[in-house]
Each structure stands twice: as structure tokens, then as C-alpha cells.
Design a protein that fits this description.
The chain is an alpha/beta fold and 189 residues long. The protein has one domain: NagB/RpiA/CoA transferase-like (Rossmann fold, 3-Layer(aba) Sandwich), CATH 3.40.50. Helix content is 23%, strand content 24%. The strands form three sheets. Strands 6-3-2-1-7-10-12-13 form an eight-stranded mixed beta sheet. It has a three-stranded mixed beta sheet with strand order 9-8-11, with helices on one face. It is globular and about 40 Å long.
Length: 189
Amino acid sequence: MEKSVLRQNILTLRKKLSAEEVDILSKKIIDRLISLDIFNSSNVIALYVPIKKEVNLLSLFEKHGKRFVFPKVETGTKKLSFYEALSMEDFEKGSFNIPEPKTNLPKVRIEDIDLFLVPGVAFSEKCERIGYGGGFYDSTLKYKNKNSRTLGVAFDFQIVDEGFSESFDERLDAVATDERIFIINNLKG
């Protein structure tokens, strides 16, 4: 199935989730994440502000003694920069009307991020990822430290058949859902 069709089908399913369902399923995913060695051994973790009923990991931001960084689109590019935020007051409306960290916050080099928690529209058991089509994560993750890990987060219905990945797509190390986790690369911290 074509990426655009997969993307539309999954977005339609996700749109049907109630706010309560998003909360319940997101909490299950958070419980799975905080049990992982890679989460516990990581000091700097890239999060995101959820849109369009994505998995909501923001409660991680409030605890766990980690440094959390959030993406901001570099104007005129397909690349993301990351800034350390301490509260939801550190955000403003950014590209595509997505809340982004303010630029007066500490900027963190991509090489210094230990773990990237990556949103997406659909994923495969082989840790392929379909985003919204902008290529921002694909363009950015290729510059990460070789010891950093990438972990996709999704509701279980967002797992689709493999084989849609293209040469420019960055494959993730693992994908965690509310039901299971798929790991293709070592997640040791």
C-alpha cells in the first residue's frame, strides 16, 4: 500500500479516538517506556508536543529527573533543532501551528541527545516510520550520535505491514506501543 494511503487510513483511525482513550493508551506506553533500560540510562531525551491525537508523553516531562529537549523547525530547512524546556510555558506557536520551544531556551546539540522519542503516523514491526510527509525527522536523525537511540511511539493500531520504507527514510531502533515493543537495534544505554 502506498505511503499516502497508509497515512490517510491511520490518521482517520486516530481521529476517532476520544481524549480519554488517548490518555489511557498513552499512560500504557509511558509505563512501557519507563521500564526500559535505555530510558533509565539516558540523561537527555528528545520529546515532542503531541498534535492530532498523537501519543501524549508530556507527563514524562514533569518527572524522572531527565533533561527533556523539544524540536523546533529551522526556518527554510527540513532540519530540526532541539531546545531544553522546563515547563509548558517555554513554548510558542511554531511551524505548522505546532507548539515549539522558544529560541531563548538552551539549545542542545543533536549529538548530545541520548534518546529520541519519535512520533509518527504509522510504523512497521521492522521499525520503519511514516510521518506526515515533511521529512523533518528523516533529515535530522541522520546527524545523531551513533550511540543515541531512536524509539518510535504509537498506538498499537498504527502498526502496519512492512515494506513501505524508501532509501531516504531513517529506520528507528525500536517502536513501543500500548501492547508491545519491537526492537531491531540494541537498546542498551
